[in-house]
Write a structure and sequence with these properties.
The protein contains one helix and two strands. It is an alpha+beta fold and 78 residues long. It has one domain.
């Protein structure tokens, strides 16, 4: 059993849309590739936060969150 820390962790993000995220990576990447990196990064961040032993988690997001990672897989829910 893990001890829960009385702490709130917030993730602030925006929708990973091509041309709106990771724009400094284009070129050499295409806007779609850069958005894929942003989606993977956000998915991994959310997965990490999901497993922290904290009392509350908040996602503040501009746009519509997607339930899949950049590779097309669906992250597991806890």
């Amino acid at each position: 059993m893990r001890n829960i820390v009385e702490l709130t962790v917030a993730v602030i993000a925006k929708e990973c849309s091509p041309g709106r995220v990771k724009t400094r990576l284009s070129p050499p990447l295409t806007p779609v590739q850069a958005a894929g990196i942003a989606q993977l990064s956000l998915a991994r961040t959310l997965d990490t936060v999901r497993h922290l032993p904290v009392s509350q988690r908040i996602l503040v997001m501009e746009g519509t969150p997607r339930r899949q990672g950049a590779d097309g897989s669906t992250p597991r829910q806890n």
